[in-house]
Amino acid sequence: MIQVSWQDEKASLPEGATFLDVKKAFGWKNDVLMVLVDGKPRELRDKVPGDCSVEPLTFRDEAARNALRHSTAHILAQAVKRLYPETRLGIGPSIEDGFYYDFDAPVAFGPDELEKIEEEMKRIISENEPIVREFVEKAEARKIFQERNEPYKLEILEEIPDGEPISIYRQGEFVDLCSGPHVPSTGYVKAMKLLNVAGAYWRGNEKNPMLQRIYGTSFMDQKELDDYLVRLEEIKKRDHRKLGKDLDLFSIEEEGGPGLVYWHPKGAIIREIIEDFWRKEHRKRGYQLVYTPHIAKLDLWKVSGHWNWYKENMYSPMVIDEVEYLLKPMNCPFHILIFKGDTRSYRDLPIKYGELGTVYRYERSGVLHGMLRVRGFTQDDAHIFCRPDQLEDELVGVLDLASFMLETFGYDEYYCMLSVRDPENKEKYIGDDEVWETAENALERALQRKGLNYKIDPGEAKFYGPAIDIKVKDAVGRLWQGPTIQVDFNLPERFDISYIGEDGEKHRPVIIHRTVLGTMERFIGGLIEHYAGAFPLWLAPVQMRVIPVSEKQSDYAQKVTESLRNQGYRVECDLGSEKIGYKIRKAQLEKIPYMLVVGSREREEGTLSVRHRSLGDLGTMRLDEFVEKAREEVEKKLLDSIFSVTR
RNA sequence: GCUCACAUAGCUCAGUCGGCAGAGCGCAUCCUUGGUAAGGAUGAGGUCACCGGUUCGAUUCCGGUUGUGAGCUCCA
């Protein structure tokens, strides 16, 4: 007999019992998909290895959720094989929020095919086929997949070291090479949907054949699936490309070329405010702001090394007076030239050059995406030239600036990744051990001093130095690339820059490349989605709109508008002949923070009826009362209306 | 760049199994002067992305180009 315990309950089971028996013994419900045995997840069909304590795992646990989705991927593959037997199977893992399976199929899967496949999947689910694991010898596995004519499976099989048992899964007539884990039978999948098809290279390599990848998701009940689909819709509504058009923020013009952004007046004002804020904050923190050219001689890019390792992303040279010039893909060589233009003392350091530098990079056509992935963009770039002993303090300063900026925009959850050398391959990095160690330690201590949680990524460092990458979480829980801080030992060498130390000798400074917002395009594109287009008052292109109830109040409305405009607000007056309900709806759809309704009452009393886009009617107040509130809301860069806290 | 899909009015989208194109919103003019998410009427707007081919005839079918989307790969 085997003794199994769960919390304070115990059960005795015969030898050879499985966790399905454990499940029954403890009376667990059907939402239990896997078990945790001594801290390790096991599938329910596994035999109980001996006396142990167990914990049930449900859909809420990542391991169990992945197992369910992975099993759904197998159901998808089974359905495809039933409908299109000529199909060759690629791989089909679970992914965040769902699963996919790659197929080399004789037909192109379109919406009609997906529908048919989905129906077949539902049939397989209702058949409730047991999903059973088997371990076989490699030769046996080879035979199985040769018979089934599955070249991709055989390719994977051959990469498994000899002698290792091969794990395969069977459900009905379907067999897959798979290390699991899975749920016990196809009936466990209660709600599923296929979402889309896209091409995907076999094993992600563009030299390999392109397979058709079907994406889908599954849940334990229909409601959860429906909620997920609603969430997808909500994300779609926030799409910066849609909102950018609706709110007239920016466009990309076919006549102008792909990946090149046109900032319309309303988008431009948002950018201008953010840039002003950025400049002010940088000056405050000891940065000196510079402007540099858009092109430079090819030779400069040879010195910097870009011509060698970044060539694919750079536009072809243009010849000016018989000399070749390149459009800049980065700002660093320019800042270095400014640094180099004078003899620097150790007393001068750190020197921090900042620039909102517009760069151009060739991006393959298929990767372009709204404002988030473009070919011409403006980086909020800066380079800190410092002594090695200053590195840590400077990094703390950058982290401090980064967190201040992120929080100002309402990104209050973010994750830091520390990219360090691959300890196995130290020779592929430039710079000696000692310098690397100093730098990596400085980065890590800086993170600790700021009290930030971080994950260390060994081997993720670039060849020229370690880095911190910060990922930020937006209002709907998605992660975005945020600030990056990159230590560089390479460019100081290449440009042979130096400072004179206390000893009167030349020393090599370290360069920190850092960006806080990333690029104006990507950052503001992300902000549009983060705010769902409803920019806080300090950023809103139109902050308030004065709405007269009828034309009789036009004069008063215009007076109010003018007064607000003179006080520095971005304000409009709606003198249209429509009714007030219509004007309010229009202002709502434009996501204007404040609507100031003025009718005959307000005109007589010299007041405003204030309405906020999300709080609704806020009642009547004097203009100076409203202005005082608005001023505070703007000055404090509040994310929500000031009336929502004081009301 | 690759695979698949898509491209019709300023916007969102119908439509023509091949016979010189439609709605709603928006815009203009007029009527209406109204109190917190759509008052009414009239009107203007399109080389149906571009270039070729098939056809008596192409917005529709075919090929190419450009652009866009979902992904792959890459990335700020």
Model description:
Its EC number is 6.1.1.3. Pfam families: HGTP_anticodon (PF03129), tRNA-synt_2b (PF00587), tRNA_SAD (PF07973). Its main location: cytoplasm. Keywords: Aminoacyl-tRNA synthetase, ATP-binding, Cytoplasm, Ligase, Metal-binding, Nucleotide-binding, Protein biosynthesis, RNA-binding, tRNA-binding, Zinc. InterPro entries: aa-tRNA-synt_IIb, aa-tRNA-synth_II, aa-tRNA-synth_II/BPL/LPL, Anticodon-bd, Anticodon-bd_dom_sf, TGS, Thr-tRNA-ligase_IIa, Thr/Ala-tRNA-synth_IIc_edit. The chain has 647 residues and is an alpha+beta fold. It folds into four domains: 54 residues, Roll (Ubiquitin-like (UB roll)), CATH 3.10.20; 167 residues, Threonyl-tRNA Synthetase, Chain A, domain 2; 280 residues, Bira Bifunctional Protein, Domain 2 (BirA Bifunctional Protein, domain 2, 2-Layer Sandwich); 103 residues, 3-Layer(aba) Sandwich (Rossmann fold), CATH 3.40.50. It is built from 20 helices and 34 strands. The strands form eight sheets. An eight-stranded mixed sheet has the order 16-21-22-29-26-25-23-24. Strands 2-1-5-3-4 form a five-stranded mixed sheet, with helices on both faces. Strands 6, 7, 8, 12 and 13 form a five-stranded antiparallel sheet that branches. The N and C termini lie far apart (67 Å). The relative contact order is 0.07. The mean pLDDT is 91. The protein binds one RNA strand of 76 nucleotides through strand 12, strand 13, helix 7, strand 29 and helix 15.
